[in-house]
Here is the input.
Amino acid sequence: MTPVTRMLVSGFAALAFSALGGAGIAHAEVFDDQAYSTCTALAAPGVDMDGVATSCCVENFGVPTPTRFGIGCVSAMANPAPDYRPVIFMPTRQAPPEVQSGDVALEELMKLPPMPGPPLDAPLP
Here is the structure.
């Protein structure tokens, strides 16, 4: 093989390896927060919500995270910044039957005193 042919063959081999090299790398799945919320909302009342939240989190490519309110779920991140604060998704729980109609919640809101300050439609100073 001549030096020119050897250089061309090695150049094509390097080009082929660099073009096909990325195909062997597995791509990480992205956390699906919508599917996680749906999965936790469909849990039957009275079950262990920490277990449900953990399994739903893992199924949707998240990382289960303990919080003071129970198990939450965060999106996995390879190299977070030192000051990075992840968004923690908490499980969606079904409302009790008396609140699902919406009337009870609205009535409770109407009982609250008005917030202090100018009305929202007033001109700004």
Q: What stands out?
A: The first strand starts at residue 62 and ends at 67. The chain has five helices and two strands. The mean pLDDT is 78. Residues 27-78+86-92 form one domain.
